[in-house]
Amino acid sequence: MTGPRRQELATNLAQVEERIAAACASSGRERDDVHLVVVTKHFPRSDLDLLADLGVTDIGENREQEASAKLDGGVRTHFIGQLQSKKANAVTRWADVVQSVDRLKLVGALARGAETTGREVTALIQVNLDPDADAHRGGADPADVPALADAIAGSSLRLGGLMAVAPLGGDPDAAFALLARLHEALVAYHPSAWMLSAGMSGDLESAVRHGATHLRVGTAILGTRASHR
After folding, report:
1. Interatomic CA distance for residues 131 and 166, integer angstroms
2. Mean of the per-residue pLDDT values for the chain?
């Protein structure tokens, strides 16, 4: 596959890779310990094909209807958006990882979906790190993490770890430091919950400093959706 869009994606991927490698080096971490999830929501199937051709192995989507219409295997798919319980069964048909589990009702719905489809689905607990409860972008209260973790671990889902979004306008270092402490406490009781999803295009360096194993990067690689309409 050739063309200007492929070259654009290749260039952007290389630049993001340089940022991740530099962040790992400055933090004393191995580059292989950090996984890139390219967020393809609102972008066409043609971009997914180009990304796969460029070696991308993990992509993120946040709308069930959009994702199910354009996915066709070949990549590991992460659901990263807020999820209604009634859509959980549909999501388990294609999502390998659901990063936004934030309530017990959703645990049960996803578990039933995974049992129906016969697929292994990994669940991450999304934690709300925003001090303003009315402004946050989803997530469970940190105090609810242990109960959610136990519920996931006791279900047909696989407990993967934690996910969070840094508060808008806040200090990502402070937010991700808190997330790292919560993750350390989780792993003490659930050693296999090694995944820590944090960091996006604007704050991935901070996330790497605080132990993120998965980065969710969209704009820095794909650009803004409006430019490709």
Report:
1. 11
2. 94
